[in-house]
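Work package 3, deliverable 3.1, input record:
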Amino acid sequence: MKHVQRLVFLLLLLYLPFALPAAKKRGFSFPQHLGVAVRQADGVCLNIHNGSLSAGTKVTLVILSSPQSVAEAEVLHADSACPDVDKGDTGLRRYRLRVLKGELPPSLPSIAVSGSMGPFQLNGERVTADVDDDGLPESFRLCTSSEGIHLTVWSGTPLSGVLKWHQYYYLGYDVEPNCTSKDIVEKHGRREPKEI
Amino acid sequence: MPLSGRQWVDLFPASDSTADLAGFFRGSVDRFVSALRAAGATVTIDDTLRPPERAYLMHFSFRIAREAMDPAIVPAMQGVDVQWVHLDPQGRPDLLASRAAAEEMVQGYGVVFRPALTSRHTEGRAIDMTIGWRGNLTISNARGDRTTIASLPRSGENTALQRVGASYGVRKLASDPPHWSSDGH
């Protein structure tokens, strides 16, 4: 009997490393941890569905040029003078950021991940990171609609994986659209991921 | 002919007035916006007409600066007296100076994707507006029938509101939350 108990204990020990990561960030909220940062003439601003980010909160910025890259920043303070990325999205809160490492290209929105996530790795042209710690790396994507861009995060490969997060960014000028129907999913009339 | 450069950026600004929309569409928008406001909704208008001259300047400055287009082959546009080709002291085309001036414009406009030359906005047949309300919205459609909208979201992305807008000839483009036009494009 003792042998069986010992075996069960050993099996539990072996299983633990796989079970822990999923439990570690149970309740992880993509909208509260992910936002959009952009560098304008007067500095870098963050729009995110989270009103409780404190000064000094670390933010990783995924720059969506080709190839993708990563920069690091920290929250300075809430700043209502920062422009709205989508005026119709009333839940967004705005913060001023300070870039600590790397450089943001001007006017190109990047996906901001708050808190200590990662590691962020470059696989070919794409950055990946297991931001929700579920064992599956997330990928980051940007596409254009008629006068805005759709920023998305996917578990797995963009467009074929599971859409985890979406944010619209209003450009204010007309561009050639290249988004697919998978980038823009309607939910109660609002384009949002099917599942989060 | 004035040379290209930063000084062009503030010319031909986009309008936020419905008075600058094309005739028939202006009437449609004004009636729809009046109905929204009469029903208690808030309507904030961003862009209506984006002048074709502005689109031309944005498009070709981007192509010269970021896509290596030869400034000498940019087609002229009536009403935009811009000289894309800068000359060196000997009077020869100066490609570097031409590109630098175009880049000044790109940065002044704040564009990072190639701007389109034509759109419903340049035709005066589109409007970007943010719409919101509290509780239920009871609004009249173009035939005068009143509809109460209790569904979510309380914004322009509400499909019931979009049906009301369509009755006025103002149609929603699904991919861009603030964008309405004469035909949904």
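The CA atoms of residues 164 and 195 of chain A lie 7 Å apart.
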